Every structure is written in structure tokens, then in C-alpha cells.
Amino acid sequence: MHCADIVSLLDSATDADKALVKKAYEFAEKAHAGQLRKSGDPYFTHVYETAKILAELKMDAAAVAAGLLHDTVEDGLMSEETIRKEFGDEILFLIRGVTKLGKVKYRGGERYIENLRKFVVAAAEDIRVLVIKIADRLHNMRTLGALREDKRERIALETLEIYAPLADRLSIRLVAREMEDLAFKYLHPAEYEAAVKIVKAKTKETMPRLEKFAQSVKKALAENGLTSFKMDYRQKGVYSLYKKLAAHEGDIEKIYDILAIRIRVDTVAECYQALGIIHGIWRPMPGRIKDYIASPKANGYRSLHTTVFTGDGSVVEIQIRTNEMHYDSEYGRASHAVYKKQGSKGVSSHSEAKWFARFLPEIINYSAEVSPRAETATPKWIRDLAATQQEAATDLEKREIVRDMKADFFHERIFVLTPKGDVIDLPKGATPIDFAYAIHSSVGEHVSGARVNGRMIGIDTELHNSDIVEIITKPSSKPSVKWLDIAKTTMARRHINNWLEKNRKK
């Protein structure tokens, strides 16, 4: 373990950045001297690995330094005053936030709702707090085997149900995949081993054909003038395969992307050029062409996907993206783009934080005291969600908060389109009512029907991925109590309740 290994991973680091990380490294190493983890490893190994993960995610120097120091205050090794004196208010703020999240213990069901509420509120203070905690959790998952069985199970369940989906929502797929697979291994060892065997068997069976086909693709691209590209293979995560098998009733023959070819080019134009060359030689499978460049997923994922018949009786999925898109999809736009320094603002002038706002439309204005950088650097959907997490007074309110948070924060999402091609992110099971309120409250209040993919449907019809939805409104159409049973999003239900209460008073 060397500080230089972390410093070398920093993105565009100044001398001051390097000095800050080095100082935090030395302070943490001294503070944790003599401490051991359950595994018998020096405790400093944990904070070192946490900081290294943050540097790999291209977080700023302050976040990396906070990663090194994040356990010093909670463990009583340093006082807050010492942190403030040596490292300043910003790093103390981050450490306090991580300490708050460290107190959240997942218990399942309604028992954990108040802690989960605190989790969201703490995350809203500064998104870096959340990414530091994700890095901390990832290293803990890598060393989970040293803990007793009941603790392993609780931490694995919390990781699978909260941390991995959260990393995915932040588009840090590399971390989300590893968390999912590690948690799956401890929670369902038999199913995990079965899925691993399938992956190994399919890889052994498929790889020779895939490598031969990849050589043909390389030759075709070069012969058509596309020579500046990189090609590798993407293997599906074990947990992801397990879920897909369950969706296809265990039929492995219906899963085409256990192994996929990934092509990286320099420009968007070259993405489409590569796709055209491939489709000109190999026939694409109908319904398997996805253009996530023209219509990105709501978490910012961009890529071209196609599945082609290779001519030897097999099919292969191909993903085509730019190098920038590849980095964003693996390490997360949340982790580096928002924090690139530019001028005195500390946030890029084209701040990609605006991208996050698509997750949750505005519910109410967030006015709590937060980090000075939170308004520009913290995802708006987290700030909006935090703003709705009032203390629950009754059992009914607690159940409603659990339902709302699961739907808006952790539930599987679908991505539907407006007729103009704008992407709307909704929870699975959402209806045209949810879609209408996501557009605007005035649209939601007068929705009478919807046209999906050119066909008229009722407002209680479930929407699906990639549906093109056009809302039909009428001045005479108004919210009713029945709408509360149809709506799935917190925002739609709140608007409906507010309208009903307002008009009940009238």
C-alpha cells in the first residue's frame, strides 16, 4: 500500500490535491496504527481501499481524502475539531455525512423506515457523501467472509436491496455489478453456484466462436475505413443472469447476451458507421436493435445495442459506444463529471448535475441546510426525495413512506417516451396517470386516456419499457379517489391527494 498508488489515479490533480491526499493518508495511517479488522488485516487497509475505489471513480481530492479519514471520528481516533483544523470544513462535512450513514442498519420492512429516511436526507446534503459510502460498502463486501453468518446476511441483503440499486441509479455499473454478485453469493449460495456454472459453461462453449466472429468484425470495420477502435468482451454478471433466467422461466436459449462484443470508437458518427457496416454484412435480429445514443436511458446510459445472426447458427450481441460513453457507463457520470474543477466554482460550467433531474420531477422546493455545493452537485432527485421524508407519526404513514420510497428510489424502473422522444423514468407498473403527472400537474389533473404506440388505452393500463405515450386530456376530467389506487409514483399520489383535499374544502 502506497499513497502514490492513489495519487496516480486522481483526475487532473493539482499539487494542492496531491498534497491533501498525502496528508490524509499519513493522518489515517497513524490514527489506525495497531487496529485490526475481523479478517486479521490492518484496519488501515480498509480506508486505503475505500480511497482507492474513490480515486478510480475519479472523485475529487476532497472526497478521496474524506475516504481515507471517514472512520477516524466515529472510532474516536480524531476529534471533529482536529479534522476541521487540519483539513477544513468541507472534508469535516463529508466525514460527518458518512458517519450518519454508518449508523443506518437495514432490518427490513417498516422497522428500518426512519433510518432509511435519514439515509436519504444525509445523501441529499452532498452526493459525494453517498459515493464515499458506496465505496466503503464495496470494500466491506469484498471482505464479508470474515464476519459471522447472521451479520453477513444482513449486510448482503442491505447491499442487494439498497446499495447496488443506488449505484445503478447513479450509473456506476461496475460497482453495482460487483455488489450484486457478492451479495448474491452470500444470500443464495446454491443459486449463485448454479449461475456461475452456467456462465462458465456458456463461456467455454461460446468463446471460440465469438473470437472467430470478432476477427471477422474487425476485418470488416477496417476494410470499410474504420480503423481507430477498440474491441473487447463483456460478460454478464452472475446475479443479472439469475434474474434474466427467472424472467425466461429458466430457458437459457432465450438469453443472447451472456457474452457480448463491445466496440469502442472515438465519435458518435463512428458508432453509427460501425453499426451500418455490421448490419450490411450480418442480419440483425428483429426487435433487438436499441439506440440508447439518440434516446439515452434516464440514468444517462448511452450505447448502441444490436444482436446479429453470425451465419454459423449462433447469434451475438454487439454493443457500440464512444470511449467517453464507456467510461460513463462503467464508473458513473455522478462520480467524475459533476466534480471536474473549472474556475472558482468547483463545478463544471456545463454541470451534468442537470442530467439527474430526470429521475424525479419537482415535488416541492428543498430548503434544508445543505453543503454549499449540493444545489449544483447533488442529484435533484435525491434532494426532492429527501424533502418529502417527514417524520412518520402513524403506522399507516410509515407503510406509505415505505411504499413510496421503494417505488421512487429502489424499485425496478422503466423508460417510456413522449411523442417527441423525451425519456420519462417511471417505476415498473406505472400507468398513464403517473406519466401525465410526470409531464406536468395540469396534464395529470385532466388526463382522460392515453395513446400508447398508436393504440388507445385506459388510464389504468400498465406501461412498459420503450412505450411511446401520448396523453389525452379533457377539461371535464378530474382526479378521483379511484386514481389513488391506479397511480404508482409518490408525485402523482401527492398531487391527487392535494387536489382532492383542496376541492373537498371548497
| Tally of helical runs | 23
What would CATH call the homologous superfamily of the largest domain? Hypothetical protein af1432
Q: Structural class of the helices, strands and pairings?
A: alpha+beta
Helical proportion, percent range = 40-55%
At the third CATH level, what is the topology name of the largest domain? Hypothetical protein af1432
Give a written overview of the molecule.
There is one protein chain. Mean pLDDT is 80; it is low at 109-114 and 334-376. β6 and β7 (423-427) form a beta hairpin. The longest helix has 35 residues, at 189-223. The protein has 3 domains: 3-184, Hypothetical protein af1432 (Orthogonal Bundle), CATH 1.10.3210.10; 189-330, Beta Polymerase, domain 2 (2-Layer Sandwich), CATH 3.30.460.10; 412-505, Beta-grasp domain (Ubiquitin-like (UB roll)). It has a 5-stranded mixed β-sheet with strand order 1-2-5-4-3. The protein has a 3-stranded antiparallel β-sheet with strand order 9-8-10. Strands 6-7 form a two-stranded antiparallel sheet. The protein is globular, with a radius of gyration of 24 Å. It contains 23 helices and 10 strands. The protein has 506 residues and is α+β, with helices and mostly antiparallel strands.
Q: How would you summarize the topology of this molecule?
A:
Layout: H1 3-7, H2 15-31, H3 44-56, H4 61-69, H5 80-87, H6 89-102, H7 113-125, H8 127-142, H9 149-169, H10 173-187, H11 189-223, E1 229-235, H12 238-247, E2 259-265, H13 268-281, E3 290-291, E4 304-309, E5 315-322, H14 323-331, H15 333-336, H16 353-356, H17 374-377, H18 380-387, H19 395-410, E6 413-417, E7 423-427, H20 432-439, H21 441-445, E8 447-452, E9 455-457, E10 469-473, H22 481-486, H23 490-505
Parallel strand pairs: 2-5
Antiparallel strand pairs: 1-2, 3-4, 4-5, 6-7, 8-9, 8-10
